[in-house]
Specification:
The complex is a heterodimer. By secondary structure, chain A is mostly helical. Chain A is about 80% helix and about 0% strand. Classes of the chains: A mainly alpha, B mainly alpha.
Chain lengths: ~240, ~70
């Protein structure tokens, strides 16, 4: 035991600081990237919420007012083909329900978007606290992956609906162009045309990259899980 | 835990408190008490070195097996 005092100067001095394994919090919290992500996610969330509210308002308007436009379109179409207005109501209801269904899907997409961004914010704040490697973050990433999968499925569904509605629209506009003179409300044509256009827009916002994003998120979740295991191992190191 | 940490005994023999040791070896008091209570999963060589230096003991004095 006494030997140690003579040997001591030879032993390199490494003052152990067990807390050094924790990242420097002050540097992390001033990271402009994290701050940027935090702000961008917040702004996007607000934008999505405003959009979602507008979509709800639009759906209400369609239910109240545009229902009449659908009736007009259906009426002119059925009259031009059959000569009478039989089946007009069913047709107009179909158009209205079709529009509302698309808006419902848009709402679901909005909810998914907000949840996704909420998780992004939670992960980024955990990084700025200096504890990104935790199982909770791995679970968050997995959830984000599933949200992406759902969003992809919806956009595919909307895509198939869009192709169906394109057929629907082309047949309809054919009728409308033939019976342009009979049409009482020309703005209705524009209104109707705008809806499948919107559907096509949703379709193109989620290309193949969406599936890749989901796979990346699942992979990153595994990476984080491994990181969390390593982190917990180092927790007990003194 | 078959490996026992004799930190408490060593400190008592030298009339040193845990806080004093923490100041001397530059290890947080929290981590030293983790070590003292035997909750530590692992010990760094650097930690071992500095404790042995300050308590003027051998690693074998600090850690004993099957006690």
């Amino acid at each position: 035991m006494s030997l140690i005092s003579t040997e001591e100067p030879a032993i390199p001095l490494h003052p152990s600081s067990p807390k050094a394994s924790k990242p420097n919090k002050s540097i992390q919290s001033r990271d402009p990237l994290l701050l940027g992500i935090h702000l961008a996610a917040l702004i996007s969330m607000i934008a999505i919420i405003i959009f979602a509210v507008l979509v709800v308002l639009g759906a209400v308007l369609i239910w109240i007012g545009a229902n009449q436009i659908a009736v007009d379109i259906a009426k002119s179409a059925t009259e031009s083909t059959t000569g009478n207005s039989a089946g007009t109501t069913a047709f107009s209801t179909a158009i209205t329900l079709w529009m509302l269904f698309h808006m419902g899907l848009l709402e679901v997409m909005c909810i998914i978007g907000v949840l996704f961004l909420l998780l992004v914010r939670k992960i980024s704040s955990s990084v700025s606290r200096g504890e990104p490697f935790q199982l909770l973050n791995a679970r968050r990433l997995t959830t984000m992956g599933w949200l992406t999968v759902i969003a992809n499925c919806i956009s595919m569904k909307v895509g198939s609906l869009a192709s169906w509605s394109a057929f629907f629209q082309s047949t309809f506009t054919q009728y409308l162009s033939i019976n342009q003179s009979h049409l009482s409300s020309p703005p209705a044509t524009d209104f109707f045309k705008s809806i499948p256009g919107a559907a096509a827009m949703i379709d193109t916002t989620f290309p193949f990259g969406g599936w890749l994003l989901a796979l990346m998120l699942f992979m990153l979740a595994r990476v984080l899980r491994e990181g969390a295991i390593l982190r917990s191992e180092i927790e007990g190191v003194v | 835990m078959p490996v026992h940490v004799n930190l408490e005994e060593l400190l008592a023999r030298r009339n040193m408190t845990l806080t004093e040791l923490a100041d001397r070896v530059d290890i947080t008091l929290a981590n030293l008490s983790i070590l003292k209570t035997g909750k530590a999963k692992a010990i760094r060589f650097s930690t071992l070195e500095s404790i042995c230096r300050e308590l003027k003991c051998q690693p074998g004095d600090l850690l004993t097996f099957g006690k």
